[in-house]
TrEMBL record:
GO terms for biological process: carbohydrate metabolic process. Transmembrane segments: none annotated. This is Glycoside hydrolase. GO terms for molecular function: hydrolase activity. The lineage of its organism: Bacteria, Pseudomonadati, Bacteroidota, Cytophagia, Cytophagales. Pfam families: Glyco_hydro_76 (PF03663). PANTHER family: MEIOTICALLY UP-REGULATED GENE 191 PROTEIN. It comes from Hymenobacter telluris. Keywords: Hydrolase. PROSITE patterns: PROKAR_LIPOPROTEIN (PS51257).
Amino acid sequence: MIHSKISHSMGALLSLLLLCSCKEPVDDAITKPPTPPVVAAPANWAARADSAQAALRQGFFTASQYYSKNNAGDNSFNYWWQAHGLDVLLDGYKRTNHADYLQQANQLQVGAKAQNGNTYLNEYYDDMEWQALACLRAFELTRDPAYKATATLLWTDIKTGWNEQQGGGIAWKKTQRDYKNTPANAPAAILAARLYLLDRNPDDLLWAEKIYRWQKATLVDPNTGLVWDGINRTGDGQVDRNWRFTYCQGVYIGAGLALYQATNRQEYLTDATRTANFVLGDADMAPGGILKNENAGDGGLFKGILVRYLGLLAVEPNVSATNRTSYINFLKFNGEAAWKRGARRPPGLFNTNWTSLPQGPVESSTQMSGVMLLEVLASLQVRNLL
């Protein structure tokens, strides 16, 4: 009787287990937990900038204390490249606070002056403007009065380039005073506006606005914001509308931004963002979203100049969130492309084309553009904007 009850109970229990197993399958096999997805570590833009800075120093800085033309033994001197060399050293110093950047900056100033005939004055107004901008920035970072003295010396000479041919504007060079272009005028407007922000001299602001008005009226497409290169280059009074350089867009963005910061007038910021948005959407300026190849020589610096001023625009507090996001994403996309295609022996060398590896010697102008790009991205990363 007891056996019968136990059998009956066991049968019921077995039926219950079978019923449960139909509703909820049980897998008694031992299985490994699912493999978590691989999450790529965020890019360390500061480390990448360090590599590019080291490549610039090791491959291009000569015993005579200036940047050579290339890393294959051509030690030709180009004055305005040295100004951008100073600027990238200041980028490195601002990011790291390492004194060796300032030491090399001081060496560069000595070497560049010696190679330029023992003077900072030059035939080309745009070249002097770049030197003045870099020196003014060096003064703001170090408070070394020698840098401010150089910037002031150059600004005094730069103003002599203004004349009324072509309706105004600063000439490209002293022996061709009837040719006016963006490279000689937009950086001058940036310089004047920054001097005003530093010293609050009303005359500097008057100069900045006068130069900017001429630039906008003469060399900017009112329909698109595209910035043309120059007027009367060949003596025919014509504008070079087919000369479409990233350089020109960059310095006009910088001029609008500097004047906005000096005056708080919205029109200047509107101009800057309009031109920036044009660049991002133009298939010639940025095919496939990557800034175009403008070859070696002076053109090697063009993209870096645009990147520098687009980066400054991206962190202007009063730029819209939509525009800020667009600018930062664009810069990051370019940075990833350029870095992934940079040579690895040594690391951090760049090509004129940011979508391919360097082939043969690299010029210092090209390398400086790459350094500027990585330094801008390192700065954005510190701000938690990447």
